[in-house]
């Protein structure tokens, strides 16, 4: 989840019937596995396709997991419900822990060449008064912070996979355990896959997580507008994150590349309300929230193409021990937002999904390549290693957001005059970006 809220604060198939040979769409820009097209005949049951490892979801978690497994010599099939990569959304912030994973799976330098390194952060009031500034490397010389366009990250990961890995237009309809110790996946077109291993990377509304007994992600009481401003002749900003604190409303903006600037406006709302997609309505509501604020932020929003402006409710799930179901059920396991959706206030949603993928790949290799664990024990080991990191991060991200969204005038005055200028230290806010793992070999 998402972007620069760090420390302050994402072959149309033909419906068919059943049993004829599989037909593949022509390969386009990235590698895909086209969904089999089947014709139904009376009294003939659909063939069941056999796969060793099936990943559900071709988002950041799914593709990073697939690439991590590939680096360990394990091939997978990735099922994606959309008919192309879901390249909507704006930008995400990646800290050094995210970059360490991207380096390990071989795409770090490809991405670095396209995105600016962010040197530090500036905190301001809504009228533009500077409260505090920090330089990241003054606190941690190894720190690396960059905004990355979600679209480019997904395309870069997809290109690392072998041809026919991603099967588009493959929406999960039903999942159930089968008698042969495998998992039966039924897709919307009624084709079926029997998988030895299922890795669910299907996001905050994961049907697999629901099947495993997880509750829905919880709305935390605020929403965010996001956008990606475009400056064809070059954006004017220094490579810093700019945070703006108001009463019950906060915003941030950060240059992502020489021509693009990511921004968000976060606001309190008792309930998420209906989905809004009309750009004119979105712009109107944003301007109502930040009326009278610094002209720099207003100019950035005015430079934003309509198709990049979105509004999303912020949600999370706290993995309470003894209450929340385990991360796996048999040979089915959860990764990323499907397991631990978190608010973006620490900039760790995408970073943690990347971490999940590389840790899971190492555990699964112990079972599939070296035989030192069973698959079930590998999944349990993955959960045991990841939970102590994920659980406190989810809570901390939530508390940071709650604090920054307070609208009490006395509290906001204390924040602006005492807490931020005199008490906040950047070092403790960056400790969670320390993450180590064994090489992928």
Order of helices and strands: EHEEHHEEHEHEEEEHEEEEHHEEEHHHH
**N- to C-terminal distance:** 29 Å
Low-confidence stretches: 1-45
Describe the sheet with the most strands: 8 strands, mixed
The number of helical segments is: 12
Structural class: alpha/beta
Q: How many beta strands in the DSSP annotation?
A: 17
Strand content: 15-25%
Question: What is the CA-based Rg, rounded?
Answer: 22 Å
Q: Tell me, rounded to a whole number, the average pLDDT.
A: 90
State the shape: globular
Helix content: 25-40%
Describe the fold and architecture:
The chain has 12 helices and 17 strands. By secondary structure, it is an alpha/beta fold. Strands 1, 2, 7, 8, 9, 10, 16 and 17 form an 8-stranded mixed β-sheet that branches. It has a 7-stranded mixed β-sheet with strand order 5-4-12-13-14-11-15, sandwiched between helices. Strands 3-6 form a two-stranded antiparallel sheet. The longest helix has 30 residues. The protein is globular. The chain starts with 47 loop residues before the first strand and ends in an 11-residue tail after the last helix. 47% of the residues are buried. The N terminus is likely disordered.
